[in-house]
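Lab channel / #folding
Pinned by the channel admin:
"Please post every new chain as: sequence first, then the structure tokens as a reply. Keep commentary short and put observations after the output so the thread stays searchable."

First post following the new format, from NK:
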Amino acid sequence: MKRDRRAKFVEIANNRVNRALNDIRLIGNLSNRSAYEFTEEDVKKIVRALNREIDTMRGRFGTTGNGGESEFSLS
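Reply from TO:
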């Protein structure tokens, strides 16, 4: 039973982390100034939101976890 839970964790974690990494790469594609217009403040908001969610995720694996924001918006 314990091994099944570990195998399930590994499988799901691999899928979710790879999907998150791909999505972060796609966010990085927004840096193409020939296709998009953005400000330094926009970039700071994006980075803060991502870092905040990483901190929340890290906390959930410890004992001080709590929920984070469910959506991100530049406005």
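NK: The first helix runs from residue 2 to 29.
TO: also worth noting, Residues 2-61 form one domain.
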